[in-house]
């Protein structure tokens, strides 16, 4: 019996309305050797050749899934990165280059970095995820001012036309709305961001429709974080997301897929199996697909031995994937970077964080094997 089939079955009885109740709060040195002329040097054993590392994309493909990673244009000069991305990934996510403030910090758009990533993907037969069209943290100041003063949807339409029009042939999934949930803001659990202030809740549906009109064959994604752990707050986040999806589906909004970022965090304990299972079940029951979009692991204690740290990271990755990959509506898994040198966690958590499949020397870590075995 595969490990994922051992997940506690009681979670299957959960309903959307019970989700919050389920979210209980927890808190050699080398030296010289001389020999005499008649003494032959001892034969040294030939070093063992390490086994080849199986490509993550091939393991994912065996399950009908994709594997991908977020990369930055500035890292493409690293030949090791390029070769491992091509070997391991069937899709890439632009980590920053497609965000609105990266493309147009002023009113003039500059696509140079994004074009580098798109050209790299095209040369190597990689698909791209479109990340992201609307995110409150990447709205350039000029656009924020214009939206606040005019409440003119044409500003958003123009942005969508420029970005989707340029990259739509390569993108199979568009993160149309990034991180719209914030229960502490009221408003039926929605974030009171610049788009909400200008257009109300309807901005979500309008954005989905605007993106669909420009990319009719791509999947329209709502991408969200903070859904994996056993706290009242994350329980409210799960419930708010599900209720938003229910409202959108009831109105016929063109949402196809839910992006679960999966920024795992060992400081919060271990992932909450019942809550994740219930979330996945309810999304599936709405007829929606799921993409794991930004998988990585923040460590709780970087003072432990490297071996112990890597084991904890791998175990948390395995726990999470063993739950979500039970569901046949999952499309694929993307990590937020591939090696620890190029991880956002270096600045947001700890410069020593080891929360990605490869270390800084591009050696595969236990997390890499955890992903492989989850795909098995």
Task: Note the main attributes of this structure.
eight-stranded parallel barrel, globular, alpha/beta, disordered N terminus, TIM Barrel, 14% strand, 10 strands, 376 residues, 14 helices
Order of helices and strands: HHEHEHHEEHHEHHEHEEHEHEHH
Number of domains: 1
Instruction: Tell me the radius of gyration.
Output: 23 Å
Strand order, main sheet: write it out: 1-2-3-5-6-7-9-10
What is the CATH class?
Alpha Beta
- Strand fraction equals 5-15%
Q: Helix share of residues? A: 25-40%
Rounded mean pLDDT is 89
CATH architecture verdict: Alpha-Beta Barrel
Structural class: alpha/beta
The major β-sheet equals:
8 strands, parallel, barrel
CATH topology (level 3) name = TIM Barrel
What is the number of beta strands? Answer: 10
Rough outline: globular
């Amino acid at each position: 019996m595969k490990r994922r089939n051992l997940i506690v079955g009681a979670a299957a009885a959960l309903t959307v309305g019970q989700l919050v109740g389920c979210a209980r709060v927890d808190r050699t040195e080398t030296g010289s050797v001389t020999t005499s002329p008649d003494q032959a040097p001892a034969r040294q054993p030939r070093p063992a050749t390490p086994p080849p590392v199986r490509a993550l994309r091939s393991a994912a493909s065996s399950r009908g899934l994709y594997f991908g990673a977020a990369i930055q244009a500035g890292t493409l000069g690293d030949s090791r990165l390029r070769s491992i991305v091509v070997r391991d990934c069937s899709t890439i996510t632009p980590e920053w280059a497609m965000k609105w403030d990266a493309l147009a910090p002023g009113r003039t758009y500059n696509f140079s970095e994004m074009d580098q990533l798109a050209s790299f993907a095209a040369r190597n037969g990689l698909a791209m995820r479109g990340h992201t069209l609307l995110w409150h943290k990447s709205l350039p100041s000029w656009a924020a001012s214009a939206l606040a003063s005019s409440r003119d949807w044409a500003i958003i339409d123009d942005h969508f036309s420029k970005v989707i029009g340029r990259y739509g042939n390569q993108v199979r999934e568009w993160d149309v709305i990034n991180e719209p949930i914030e229960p502490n803001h009221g408003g039926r659990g929605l974030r009171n961001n610049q788009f909400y202030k200008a257009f109300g809740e309807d901005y979500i549906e309008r954005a989905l429709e605007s993106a669909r009109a420009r990319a009719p064959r791509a999947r329209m994604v709502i991408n969200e974080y903070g859904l994996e752990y056993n706290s009242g707050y994350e329980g409210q986040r799960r419930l708010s997301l599900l209720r938003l999806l229910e409202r959108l589906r009831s109105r016929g909004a063109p949402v196809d897929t839910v992006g679960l970022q999966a920024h795992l965090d060992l400081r919060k304990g271990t992932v909450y199996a019942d809550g994740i299972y219930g979330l996945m079940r309810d999304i599936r029951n709405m007829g929606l697909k799921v993409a794991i979009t930004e998988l990585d692991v923040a460590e709780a204690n970087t003072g432990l031995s490297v071996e112990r740290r890597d084991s904890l990271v791998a175990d948390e990755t395995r726990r999470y994937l063993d739950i979500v990959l039970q569901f046949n509506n999952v499309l694929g898994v993307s990590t937020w970077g591939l090696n620890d040198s190029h991880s956002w966690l270096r600045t947001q958590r700890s410069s020593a964080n080891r929360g990605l499949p490869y270390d800084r020397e591009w050696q595969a870590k236990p997390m890499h094997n955890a992903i492989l075995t989850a795909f098995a």
